[in-house]
Amino acid sequence: MTHTRIAKIVENLTSTCIQKPIGFNDFIDELPRSGELMLRNIFQLFHDMVHSYISEVVDEYPGDSESIGFLKYNLDNLFIHDTQKPFFADRLFSNRLVALAKSFRTSAVPNKIFIFKGPAGSGKSTFLNNLLDKFEQYMHSDKGLLYEVVWRIPYEAGIGRGASETSGFMPYPDGSVAGNHPPGGFLEIPCPNHDNPVLLIPRKHRADLLKEIIPQADLLKRIFKHRQYQWVLKNDPCTICSSLFDALSERFSIKEILSMIFARRYLFNRKQGIGLSIFNAGDDLDKTIVRTNDTLQKYLNDFFKDSNKVHYVFSSYAHTNQGVRALMDLKSRNVQRFLDLHGIISDEVHKVLDLEERIQSLFIVLMNPGDLEQIARGEEMADGTIDTSLKDRIHEILVPYVLDYHTEIKISILTFGDQIKLRFMPHVLENFAKIIISSRIKKESKAIKEWVKNQRTYEKYCDPDFFILKMELYSGLIPEWLTKEDRDSLKADVRRAILAESEGEGHEGFSGRESLQIFNEFYSRYSKKRPITMGHLNEFFRDENNKSRDKLPRDFLKHLTNLYDFEVLKEVKDSMYAFNEEEISKTILNYLVAIPHNVGDVVKNPYLGNEEFVHSTDFLDIVENHLIGYNAPFYQRVRYREEAITEYASYTLAREVHVEGRKITETKQYQEMFAQFTRTARESVLEPYVNNNNFRCAVKEFGTSDFEKYDSKLKEKILVLFKNLNEKYSYSTDSARTGIIYVLDNDLVHKFKP
Ligand SMILES: [Zn+2]
How far is it, in rounded angstroms, from Cα 487 to Cα 407? Predict the structure, then answer.
């Protein structure tokens, strides 16, 4: 390595590690530029931190007027990338977390304990570990810019000798002494409460000063009007800083005092418990709750020639003032800690010896369902009801098992590798995830039952309890198979009601760990299959020796297979249909022109450059089969034709074409016929092949030399089918072949015939 490179690395290291304090004037100077960052309390900071890790927000239905903002937030940077162990936030949880952060942005101090509640195995502790690690990283980045007060009291000869024999000393916060400080040095006293330096502008001058130095009207307006900035004008510095300020003002001018105030980066350090602390249930309770610093205290006593002026005394809570204090669970010693937090939140201030300490932290507690009731039983309420004063101070955020199947798939892929996707037929991996999630959804949905008008509409492809529908909605998707009527009545309040139901779900069923075990067992049994099909899923979960099946809702596999059948059939049909709009358009136009004529007449079509054609019964049959169905009796066809002739003359031509000046292709009659023709053509595209053995054999032999023996029309048809299945629906050749044969073998055309 060259010297320059080493020098560069060292320079990078030092610039990131050392954050030199800046003078108070420099702090003030920086406010107009970075005030937005520098004037954040812990709650706004949390908001900004969470948002800085959101890499993408997807709204699948932009412009949907009934949207309730249930969006897809990508939180991988927060919970997955660069972590020791990933946490998988599903769409429901991500929305909850983002909503919580947003609520911090627009409110004053919430004064609550934030409880993240979820069953064992839901990944709560991983969530908290990752969240706080990323918070620490954030504070070290430019976006985490925040300052705290550090005092530099000028060294005065003769003072402090009792504390240290070295003259010109500068004790560090922990009481150790750094020697060789130049004469005329100072004593550095950090504010143990991590006060924001802005608080040291005397309160009565603060508003004026901010108006003076901040030129941006919008920033000023926010500071003065918005609730989350209230503290900037309202709060006082901590007791230590206030008393230091007062004591100094007996000997120094305000200007001189301000020159002793420095601002240094407030950097969280989880290991040292600065800004962030996580307590495990087994951690010893802090016996010496009161923290002091004898060296510093001695110096202050000497400096002010009075031992009562400034008491450098604080509690362990000071370390996480304007930071995060978290309890890993609500067991053994953490119960006492939890009750202490409750006391602090309720009273806002607490006493440390004689001094008042005002603590403002983000308190996070993880717990299992029932823990709180347990505490209530142990405390005052014998019956386990929770004291209302405690209840009022609690905000619960649920961390249940994953309920969004996309997240469940992501877990399998991240655990077992990307290649597993290739082993499964399309939909089958998704369906594995849905089966797992079905064990976690136990309730029938009142909200869905009130919303869906005719529940029998979906019996061919959705379960009667609508678990399948619910899963789609939980993952933010509105299934295409909903009727127009139900799609239209899926209003915002219905969506809210459905999502609200998720709050009661995901607390039982397969845990994350169990889900991985089941996948592992499944995959080791079927990974040799090419491809893994819905049949394999059925075989696995219906196996009598498989204990997992007891946790699944009754008949869920049957209904899920129905939906699968419906989807595969649709995809095969879609891929089979060679859509020729021009051909259909020409057919409809000829039909409209021909029907007033007699069969056998030569008809000229004015819409097609007076092209001539012979009107025939065959032609009528083909068109009417598509428009009113193959089984329509003769009299119905005649009536249909007569009505069409009337409509064409009296409305289509008389009104739309002649009065409104529309083109024939823009009229209602034409468009309805066109749509119906297309629908039928698409619908019945497979019918000629259902019992065609040649077709079936050719599909099986596709890709082999035997395929060549079929006639070229059939070959072309099958080639297009495989190509479309691949391009439109991601089927590999193997999957496509399996899928088409599956459709034929199970007579799906017949199963879903309207
Ligand atoms: Zn302070």
Answer: 25
